[in-house]
Design goal:
By secondary structure, the chain is mostly helical. It is built from four helices and no strands. Helix content is about 50%, strand content about 0%. It is elongated, with a radius of gyration of 17 Å.
């Protein structure tokens, strides 16, 4: 999915897609209605960031995410 993010617009990314014959579709940036998982990532990010002690590494992030259930 190409949402016009910088990493999707690089020449390397475009060359890779072109070499594989992958057709790109125009996709508006920040369109959670077209990509519902973005709402989940946003909610998780806000919950993790709102903790008294935000995770500083992968293991503490995993523990924080598991504790949100």
């Amino acid at each position: 999915m190409d949402d016009n993010a910088t990493c999707h617009r690089t020449l390397t990314s475009q060359d890779c897609l072109d070499s594989e014959g992958i057709q790109r579709l125009v996709w508006p940036a920040r369109s959670p209605d077209l990509n519902p998982i973005e709402n989940v990532w946003d909610a998780l990010g806000r919950q993790v960031a709102g903790r008294n002690y935000p995770p500083t590494n992968k293991n503490t992030l995993i523990r924080a995410l598991r504790g949100m259930g």
